[in-house]
Design a protein that fits this description.
3-stranded antiparallel sheet, binds iron/sulfur cluster, 4% strand
């Protein structure tokens, strides 16, 4: 495609040109130079700056209102119901459900997480329905608790279910192409609602949010980079507290839905920003802090194998997401030169089968590469650190690479496609209405191609540098100082450079726009 023009329509397929060569090579040059520069600098601990927003009386007043979360969730629930109605009862081909869900919500979610952390959980409409139905209260604390309060099965107290759901959603989204179907989009929304609501009647607190929710777990691991956190103002006050109201709940606030205790809370992963602890703490000891980007993840306090696996899978699937939108992966105009077309020819079992094989391969390749580099690193350290430990500790440095590539990719979709929602606002169900006079009007993109490309390069490079900083810190903690320690870290540095190179290369390829598929 002509790199001078950002978008082309070929046989009804909207194509966006990938990064021009000079931007691609500059990006790669920056990644290489900054990698070595930052890696050999002395690693620094996370910055300790914090500013508690509840010092503002209005913010404190807001987060301590019982109706606060309900008031935020209600408009989102209404939009969710509109999506369900459009999907089930609207025009079966074109209505607002896919654009609102996949372009605005799914595309924009990643920006919301970077800026505000677990804000989606605060707004979550599925959680709202689950809370109201199980408590029989809109927002007040009540005595009704219709849950059987079973413990979540011991063997499942990890995030394997959430990882499995994430892989399944990616397969449905990209392989089964639910993004193109209003009906399938609504079915998925309803399935998500049932997955959140049913467990609250069976298990204690919000166990599904803690262990099973793919949105909660993905946003959880990413939220460790965000500039907001809920924390104890003074740890000593928590240590001397015997009632642990944040954990147990009281007449002013429900128990923490994910079973957190402010005494030891030092990461964002499992906090849903529900604000119950602001209401329940009798000592007014809960802060809503603003902090530097990446504060939790630079010295991640409790690394775990299941979270490490999620980090690697996030990296694979976000890159896979980008790759599947290129004509190289699948030529929507029907050309026979794409990866899918070649696999179809080879296996002869149809595009969904070929897609599944391709997806499995792309899930496994980065995982195996990362594992091999961890093994090599462990060997180079003389076996001082096991492969398993290297795998767990270093995986958190992949999180910013995945997040910022995710941002670069989704930013392109939002900038180039968000305007498509405006006409649909006039006819959300595809009934032929023109409520606001926006039907048939063509609206400009939010951003031009040059700005999108520059932002994409800057975003990927920033994510890489943050990842290197985290890796350098983890490396120093594991291997110590000196020549041998530095040599042991080289395979991991190489893995990170390869991952960022692949991100940049995918952005260099032309891209099929979602509007082609809707
Ligand atoms: S964890 Fe999932 S279900 Fe729970 S509040 Fe967050 S998005 Fe909603
Ligand atoms: S109650 Fe728990 S989940 Fe809710 S804001 Fe407090 S720590 Fe976070």
């Amino acid at each position: 495609m002509d790199p001078a023009s950002c978008c082309e329509v070929v046989d009804g397929i909207h194509l966006m040109a990938g990064l021009p060569d000079w931007m691609f090579f500059s990006g790669i040059g920056l990644i290489l130079t900054l990698s070595f520069g930052f890696y050999f600098l002395k690693s620094k601990p996370a910055a300790t700056f914090r500013y508690d927003l509840t010092r503002f009386t209005f913010i404190k007043w807001l987060v301590t209102r019982r109706w606060f979360q309900f008031a935020l969730q209600l408009p989102v629930l209404i939009i969710f119901l509109i999506i369900l109605y459009a999907g089930f009862f609207g025009n079966s081909r074109i209505n607002i459900a896919p654009a609102l869900t996949w372009t605005i919500w799914w595309g924009g979610l990643i920006f919301a997480i970077l800026l505000f952390g677990k804000i989606w959980c605060t707004l979550c409409p599925w959680d709202m329905v689950a809370s109201v139905l199980s408590r029989l209260k809109f927002w007040n604390v009540g005595i009704v608790n219709s849950s059987l309060n079973l413990k979540w099965p011991k063997k499942a107290r990890n995030i394997t279910l959430a990882i499995g759901l994430f892989i399944a959603l990616t397969w449905l989204e990209l392989g089964y192409k639910v993004t193109a179907s209003p009906f399938a989009t609504a079915v998925l929304g309803l399935a998500m609602l049932l997955m959140v609501v049913l467990p609250v009647f069976l298990f204690e607190k919000k166990s599904f949010c803690r262990y099973g929710c793919l949105i909660g777990r993905i946003s959880g691991i990413y939220a460790n980079i965000s500039p907001f956190e809920v924390r104890a103002k003074d740890r000593n006050v928590c240590l001397s507290c015997t009632s642990k109201d944040c954990y147990n709940g009281n007449e002013n606030g429900y128990a923490c839905p994910t079973g957190l205790n402010l005494t030891g809370l030092n990461q964002n992963t499992y906090c849903t920003l529900c604000t119950e602890c602001f209401k329940s703490c009798p000592s007014d000891n809960v802060a809503l802090n603003v902090r530097p980007l990446g504060a939790d993840i630079i010295d991640y306090p409790k690394p775990r194998m299941d979270e490490a696996i999620l980090a690697v899978i996030l990296l694979s699937l976000t890159a896979f997401h980008g790759l599947t939108m290129t004509p190289m992966w699948e030529d929507l105009a029907g050309g026979g030169d794409s990866i899918i077309a070649r696999m179809n020819e080879f296996f002869g079992l149809g595009p969904l089968f070929s897609f599944s094989i391709g997806m499995t391969a792309i899930l496994l390749i980065p995982y195996l590469l990362y594992h091999a580099m961890c093994w090599l690193s462990s060997r180079l350290s003389g076996g001082a650190v096991s492969t398993r430990e290297v795998f767990i500790r270093f995986a958190y440095s992949l999180v910013p690479i995945a997040l910022f590539y995710h941002l670069a990719h989704n930013g392109m979709h939002v900038a180039m496609e968000a305007q498509n929602v405006v006409p649909l606002l006039s006819d959300p169900f595809g009934y032929g209405w023109n409520l606001f006079g926006t039907m048939g009007v063509s609206y400009p993109m939010l951003m031009g191609d040059q700005s999108v490309w520059l932002l994409q390069v800057a975003t990927v490079v920033f994510g890489h540098v943050l990842g290197i900083r985290i890796a350098a810190r983890a490396g120093e903690k594991m291997f110590g100082h000196g020549k041998k320690a530095l040599i042991a870290q080289i395979p991991l540095l190489l893995a990170m450079v390869i991952f960022s190179f692949v991100s940049m290369w995918i952005m260099h390829l032309d891209m099929n726009m979602r509007s082609s598929m809707m």
